[in-house]
Amino acid sequence: MAEKKTRDASFVQFVVDQLADIEGIRFRRMFGGYGLYCGSDFFGIVAEDRVYFKTNGTTRREYEAAGMKPFRPSSKQTLKNYMEVPPDALEDASELLRLAEYAIGVARACDTC
Predict the structure, then answer these.
(1) Is 65 within the bounds of a domain?
(2) Chain segment 50-108, per-residue pLDDT in tens
(3) What range defines the domain where residue 48 resides?
């Protein structure tokens, strides 16, 4: 599997615009895509025009129930704590905001992540 790349910043800017109600939201290039931050908390990845949010054992179940998969930056690596956001949630700002707030909470609670 080739490294997942986001073609340009317009998709990540769309995601950030959908999350505009979160104070301190920003992004920066990483993993061949973009990292999503709330202040200094890293809570998401945008790669290959897909969004992945940080999860834990509890929040991951919702993504798995929707058939979503974890982020795979390469064929040899899987980041199981970052699950793909369901495509329907990307078009629903309130749903994306809800999922992002959970992901930010997970990131803030995780000392070693």
Answers:
(1) yes
(2) 999 999 999 999 999 999 999 998 889 999 999 999 999 998 999 999 999 999 999 99
(3) 9-109
Cα torsion 74, 77, 81, 86 to 10°: value is: 30
The kind and range of the H/E element at 50 are strand 50-54
Instruction: Please check whether residue 2 lies inside any domain of the structure.
Output: no
In a domain, 22, yes or no: yes
Nearest one of 38, 14, 34 to 26, comparing CA atoms: 38
- The total number of structural domains in the chain stands at 1
Residue type for 31, please? F
Of 109, 66, 70, nearest to 88 (Cα)? 66
> Which pLDDT belongs to residue 107?
95
Banded pLDDT at 32 (limits 50, 70, 90): confident
Beta carbons within 10 angstroms of residue 78's beta carbon: 13
Half-sphere exposure of residue 54: CA atoms within 13 angstroms, side-chain side? 20
